Amino acid sequence: MKRVKSESFRGVYSPRRFKLSHLLLATAGFYLVFLAFKFPHFIEMVAMLSGDTGLDGALRDAGEDVSLSGSLRSDMLGRKLEDEESQHGPASTTQKVPPGEKKNESKRVQQVPFRYGRISGEIMRRRNRTKHMSPFEKMADEAWMLGSKAWEDVDKFKVENIEESSVNEGVVESSCPSQISMNGDDLSKANGIMLLPCGLAAGSSITILGTPQYAHEESVPQRSRFTRGDGMVLVSQFMVELQGLKTGDGEYPPKILHLNPRIKGDWSHRPVIEHNTCYRMQWGVAQRCDGTPSKKDADMLVDGFRRCEKWTKNDNTDMVDSKESKTTSWFKRFIGREQKPEVTWSFPFAEGRVFVLTLRAGIDGFHINIGGRHVTSFPYRPGFTIEDATGLAITGDVDIHSVYATSLATSHPSLSPQQTIEFSSEWKAPPLPSTPLRLFIGVLSATKHFSERMAVRKTWMQHPSIKSSDVVARFFVALHPRKEVNAMLKKEAEYFGDIVILPFMDRYELVVLKTIAICEFGVQNVTAPYIMKCDDDTFVRVESILKQIDGISLEQSLYMGNLNLRHRPLRTGKWAVTWEEWPESIYPPYANGPGYIISSNIAKYIVSQNSKQKLRLFKMEDVSMGMWVEQFNTTMQPVEYSHSWKFCQYGCTLNYYTAHYQSPSQMICLWNNLLKGRAQCCNFR
């Protein structure tokens, strides 16, 4: 077990003004937690939750002695774990288990009795304004208030109406046109996005009429470092993307197809057309067509078409094989021998020249024709379905004149949670055990991630250790602005008994509140020596995780995961962190958020500090956990920092403990591989 010394961290933070209440209210068949934060002169919000339904049964153990295969994107390997000698801080020590004491047997914790609570209108009216609050506190304040109102609306909403109302922006079959058209002006007003309400179907086609703009200069600082000059390059490129606009809230939509013609070329100095997919900001392996024809092998063809056709770099089209002389060509025609001259086309795009691009959805992949000629084909990737392609986005250096979409899907049952969720007793969670368990797993999930939760239930939550209640797993979900979504979430929670509903309005910046809820639930409602946090797109190899924690003494405080040392905050971009939010130049040591484990004494410390309004919060939950662990390490007792790359931050890799950014289809694929004893990664989407 590798130990990493923690680096002392001295940050400046404003005092906390929140207080997390106890979990309350038992209702049959589901968990609902109202966690409350107390603001001065304002409110102490109390909460509700719980109940469980049981299920007998288990799947056979897949076993650990299986070979794993997979790949990790090389550009993600730059995060090298450093353990510098200059760091200072309490050294981690290993304590042995006293004789007579067995591993994984901890003292029984008394479960918190569930109570009934109500937030009265009078308390709401006593709310003082937030002039003394930090931006984070104001955001949380607003989220709690909106969440309280949203939950009241759920109680008023009739569950039977869910079947008739749409949980996805009112999508019904009558709003699924078979064809759509837009002119360039309308597309520009819509920010370059054409909505395809019910996605595509096999045979659907999209025709785009446009003109590439003339190249312009862009600065590439990296180029100036390696070449003499100012780093200016000529750029002319545009993107055509099929996006899943309805698959998630508060996050980038998945790119089911990314088509990127680069007319002036890129690092290859040749015109190129790049194809790819992207899921939750993680790109797949690009397919690049640069004029070199791809193989005609059966496994490389897409519906019988090459993935990349041949073209020349210049604008000339040669219809006769240059290797053959005119005399030989004439003689072959004279004797009647069939002549098949080689046809070499030029790159299909040119600056200032109109093009007609047709994108067609085939059986096995997308096919791109330009000017009536097949140019490229891109096979569908597991984890992406053409029905989810509910938006066409066109951006970059191009003027669009018109877009026509025909033979579109006229229905989309998968957009309905009623179709996504399988209400079968097979997937119900066992009730909370009254005896100690080995591990509690809290899974962070977004409100509308019905398919992600269903995929988790049908895969690693079917592990025998979970079905036998030796390990307990629960989803932690906040509320959505639309009452139909919340009502469906409540119905899902009531049936499966594996969801903890947090009554604040969900948003990315408040994910840290879910992490606190996991800690509180893990120490107050179950008896487990270790608590694991993961995301709903994380596949957990439960058996491997248990083997890791079984090797740790119960007397040792533990922080296990894919650790980062001396990471610096990003000060620009979407994930920028201001100096006010984080005044230091580096973060404390922290484990990546997709999957990490802490010992229960650390979780108890977090809950205690929060109840005393002393817990420091930061919008990045994994960094917050690293900060809390460092405080515990400094003020309470030494912590063993255990690092492993097998808690994958990006995708899946050899001998993984957790695989991240896994789509529902990939979850099923990974689980099926485990059951077959192969345990292979499913890296292609």
Keywords:
685 residues, alpha+beta, 8-stranded mixed sheet, 7-stranded antiparallel sheet, 14 helices, 27 strands, disordered N terminus
List the helices and strands and how they pair.
Elements: E1 31-32, H1 121-125, H2 135-156, E2 180-183, H3 184-189, E3 193-195, E4 205-212, E5 216-219, H4 221-226, E6 232-235, E7 238-243, E8 255-262, E9 272-279, E10 282-283, E11 287-289, E12 311-312, H5 326-334, E13 345-346, E14 355-361, E15 365-370, E16 373-379, E17 391-396, E18 398-406, H6 417-420, E19 439-445, H7 450-458, H8 464-467, E20 471-479, H9 483-496, E21 499-505, H10 511-524, E22 530-535, E23 539-540, H11 542-550, E24 557-564, E25 590-599, H12 600-611, H13 621-635, E26 639-643, E27 658-659, H14 664-675
Parallel strand pairs: 1-21, 12-13, 19-20, 19-22, 20-21, 24-26
Antiparallel strand pairs: 2-18, 3-17, 4-14, 4-18, 5-6, 7-8, 7-17, 8-9, 9-10, 9-11, 14-15, 15-16, 22-25, 23-27, 24-25
Helix pairs in contact: 2-9, 7-14, 10-12, 10-13
What is the residue-mean pLDDT, rounded to a whole number? 75
C-alpha geometry: elongated
Q: In angstroms, what separates the terminal alpha carbons?
A: 34 Å
Unreliable parts: 1-131, 168-174, 316-323
Beta-strand segment tally: 27
Number of helices: 14
The computed structural class is alpha+beta
Radius of gyration: 28 Å
GO cellular component, one term: Golgi membrane
Transmembrane segments: 20-39
Subcellular location: Golgi apparatus membrane
Pathway: Protein modification; protein glycosylation
